[in-house]
Amino acid sequence: MFLYPFLDKLGVFLFTSSQMGIYIGATLHEVAHVVGASNALGEIVSTNAIIEKMIRVIFLVPFLILLSLWLIKTNFHTKQEKSKIVIPWFAIFFIIVVGFNSLGILEKSTIESINFLDTFALTMAMSALGMETSIDKFKNSGIKPFYLSFILFIWLMIVGYFLVKLFF
User: Fold this and answer.
1) Where does the sequence pass through the membrane (predicted)?
2) What does the CA dihedral 62, 148, 2, 160 come to, rounded to 10 degrees?
3) 21 by DSSP, 3-state: which?
4) Rounded Cα–Cα distance for residues 83 and 86 (Å)
5) How many Å apart are CA 96 and CA 94, to the nearest integer?
6) Do the beta carbons of residue 34 and residue 26 sit within 8 Å?
7) Is the dihedral of CA 48, 54, 57, 62 positive or negative?
8) Phi-psi region for residue 127, left (φ > 0), alpha (ψ -120 to 50) or beta?
9) Tens-digit pLDDT profile for residues 98-107
10) Which one has a higher pLDDT value, 164 or 119?
């Protein structure tokens, strides 16, 4: 989140504003990170980044449903477990809320209140997660998860770079 604007200002990426937005939206995992990184680079970058990220989020719904169906078909579960389709309800509700919000039924003040409550609830959830986390948990997990995280980060940066250059 902090690295992308810095590298962009150094001229490392050589992207247009639209390309940089797509790159940020495609390679950062969290919506808030996409918003933070892209806002530091301007409105065009921010708009493209957020749209790209929302497209990724929306595509989670069919992906999770197809993954669930594939796992059932390939007998991923043990023989003792009864195979049944697992519906990703959070993803279904996400699409419902997007559709409902797109109708424009709710007033702007109501949406702002809901967004405030959403931000508050997310802040509380992240705080609770932080309360459950300690440096000892990181120490006990060893160095391998950090290596994997670093490799995946570099992979996303490089593959994302070439895909944006190739298609946009």
Assistant:
1) 20-42, 54-73, 85-106, 113-131, 146-164
2) -50
3) helix
4) 9
5) 5
6) no
7) negative
8) alpha
9) 889 999 999 9
10) 164
Q: Which of 157, 7, 60, 50 is nearest to 165 (CA)?
A: 157
Domain boundaries defined on the chain: 3-132+152-167
In angstroms, the CA 136 to CA 3 distance is: 27
Residues 6+ apart with CB under 8 A from 16: none
**Position 39 pLDDT exceeds 90:** yes
Confidence label for 130 from pLDDT (cuts 50, 70 and 90): confident
What is the predicted pLDDT for the residue at 126?
A: 86
CA distance 50 to 46: 6
Cα gap 137→89, rounded to integer Å: 30
Coil/strand/helix, residue 161: helix
- Nearest Cα neighbor of 18 from 41, 37, 2 is 41
